[in-house]
Give the backbone structure.
Amino acid sequence: MKLLKKIVFWIFGLIAVLALTIAVALVFGFVQGSVFGRGDYIMGIFNFPASRLIFIFEICAVLLLFYVYNRIFKRDHDLLIFKIKGFISSNRKWTYPVFAALYILLIYTIFFNITVIYKDKIIDYSFISPMGRQYSYSDIKEINTGVYGKGYYFPFTHSAGDFYYKIKFSSGKVVDINDSIAGTKDDKDIYLLFEEFDKRLVDMGIPKTAKMDNFNLCAKSLDKEYTDRIKTILNNIN
């Protein structure tokens, strides 16, 4: 019976962690969309690598779950997690403010980490530019697009078969507009928007490098409708 309780605990606990992670992402997306997604915008992009920081909330939730599990089932309280909790509690006068400040900093970093593409401009919001830095399309100096190859996946890397479309501004800033899509105007098909956006930039004469090397990996994970659009983008060169 005790084993069954443990199994049930971990099943529901992990489901709760997953639900919490999704909820946090949705809340960030909704608030960012409400604040930044106004007017004649085309799409919004969570910028890499700060977009991956949201996994820290998941780690905290897993640690909390592990702590609760050990409290309920009276496991070894000499575990590191209990020692850490004891240290934090005994030094709460400075540990609590420090953790609160770090969480506020984390939320700030994730929130002000979005690039919004409009019909006539692009605004990049970042940690050091919370009010946004505005670019015109003519400020785009280079396009680099293709599909990531095989490799080990970590929170701050990309998966094999992921399509990337990086634009480089005159300031040196690089944005991958297909890294983490925050949303599109009227929920339009993202790859159709990519195709239209790419055509506009190429027609402007912006230098473009496109690699077809790993396209077969992309074709394995996406429907033909989307891979056809990606192929069109990769073949659309100056």
Summary: The chain has one domain: 2-235. The CA atoms of residues 102 and 108 lie 10 Å apart.
